[in-house]
Each structure stands twice: as C-alpha cells, then as structure tokens.
C-alpha cells in the first residue's frame, strides 16, 4: 500500500514538473537590447542617467505586459568612454547576448568605433547619444536611427543666443579629438556667416580633468563668451579653474546638451548660475508636454519601488529614446528580426511621442530637430 502511494506521489510530482517546464518553455523569450555606455570615469553620471531614463520606460512597458507579450531586457556594459572597450562590448552584445538591436551607445569616439561593427552585422543601431553631422547624412545608414537633433543644430541655437546678448569675442574650449576638430570647423563656419571670428581655441585631453593649459590660453584671449566643447567632470574642472584664473571677470559660458547640465549644476553650485545650455528635448520638469508628464510618473513609480532617481534632461533623453524603439518593436510584430525592426522604424512618419515628434522614412533617419535653449538659474534650476 505504502509503495503504491509512493509511486502515485512520484508520478504526480513528475507530471507537475513537466507542466511547469512546459509553461516555462512556452513563455516568449525576452527582447534583448544591448548598450555600451560610460558607467565609470568622468562621464559615469551621464551614462547612468541615460541608461536609467531608458530603463524606467522599459520597466513600465514590462509591467504592462511587454511588447507583443515579450519583456524587454536592456544589457548595459561599461566602456568608460574608451573606444576599444566599446568595440569589445559591441562584439559581446551582438555575438554572445544576441541583441536584437544596439541601443543608446554614448558619445562620439565610442559611437564612431562601434557603428561600423553594427552596420557590418546588420544590427539596428538606435538612439546613440551623439550628434555629429555625419550621423545625419542622406541617404541614411540603413541601420542607424537618431532620436536627437544634431550638434550643428544646437550650435545654431547657441550662436543666436550670443547674437541676442550682443557678444562678439567668442572662444572655444574643445577636446583634442576628431570630434573637437569637427566642432571647431563648424563653429568657425557659423561665426563667419554672422560676420564674427573666434578669438581663439584651446584644447584639453578627454577624461583628463586637466584643463590648466587650456584655461591659461583662453584667459589671455579676454573672451566675452566661451563655447564649452568639453563635457562631464572635464567641463566642471574647466569652469572652476577658469573662474579662479580670470579673477571673476564676467564671461558667458555656453554649451551643447552633451555637457551634462545636471552634473554642472550639482558640482559647480553657484558657479553654474548663468551657464547657457542647448537641449534636444522639452523640459522634463514643467509637465507642459504629455511625454514629460509620463516621465515624471515613471520616475515616481521607480522611486516608490526603492530607486533614487531624479529628473534630468539626459534621463529624459533616454526615456524618449526608449519610447521610440518600443514603438518600432510594436510595429515589427510578435517575433521581430533585425531587418523587420529596421523596416518598422522606417514606418514612423511624423510619429507623436507625446508632444514630441519623431520622423523616419526610408531615406531619412534624422528623427528629431527639436532644440531649445536653457539657462541654469538659482538653485540649479533650468530656465527656458
């Protein structure tokens, strides 16, 4: 009798285990997106903010049942803003993790190092945090989809601000890099168009936190305005050392969005007041757009679950980028491959993300040309 009961129990256990395995096996696989970003070094705060902004949107979608019943899993690997590490990360994401798409790779050197790899493999490369003009060329790279206005668009907005303030002596602090050279060339051409010329240019090494030589050179130029072509902690160090060296002689700092405005406001404190920064997204703070209200609600939900996230422009950029790729995934169907996702994104003609328009077609993957100008005010608040 006991032996019979034991056999029955074992059979029931085996059946339950088989059922559990069958249910588990029937669950659709996650949609894997791969990102290489600086989670260490001078740009780590920006890397984390962009990743987290995207992640809270993916978490929101997963709670709602995923995309066509499939969860999204973002795998982010640290590259410390090093091109070789970004290449190694890209190989790992494509070959080992089998990422459906690369999403949110960050900054010029690492984007330029990894984009050819994605192109060769036919992997969609969506929402890189960069804005070099070559990324917006037509006809578009068939796998590259931008979500931000170009650096050149941002520079136009900053120079309009310079003109409105009546400033004429403009200097440039840039990186000793290909991206820095491109910025200098673009600035010189745009200043020539408005009948101005830069009073001079100074360079510093990326990720060095050593702006002393550049500071001394620019102080001696006696500029009225300085375009900051450096970012993150490098920009913080430059502004601090310039203010000390210039002995409080007033100068207007201006920068593009990739400088990391929140980082400046926090680390510079009162010294950040008055810095002009172009932005490629509407305000994430005032709730005037539908997508900013969504972002604020997602932040609140994430923080209620134990996170400690704060609203920022770069985090909002990540949130918008995540919403764009999710819409592409929805249009690609329940089991999208890489070509299907590429074609699906190209159907997003004048798509409204929530008072923020994204536009793709077969020949143009620009996405957005939205630019606004903000000023860091008292208490680190951004004023449009």
UniProtKB/TrEMBL annotation:
Coiled-coil region: none
Origin superkingdom: Bacteria
Keyword Electron transport recorded: no
Residues covered by the Leucine-binding protein domain: 31-377
Keywords for the protein's UniProt record, in alphabetical order: Signal
Span of the signal peptide: 1-25
Family note: Belongs to the leucine-binding protein family.
Protein name from the UniProt record: ABC transporter substrate-binding protein
Lineage, uppermost ranks: Bacteria, Pseudomonadati, Pseudomonadota, Betaproteobacteria, Burkholderiales
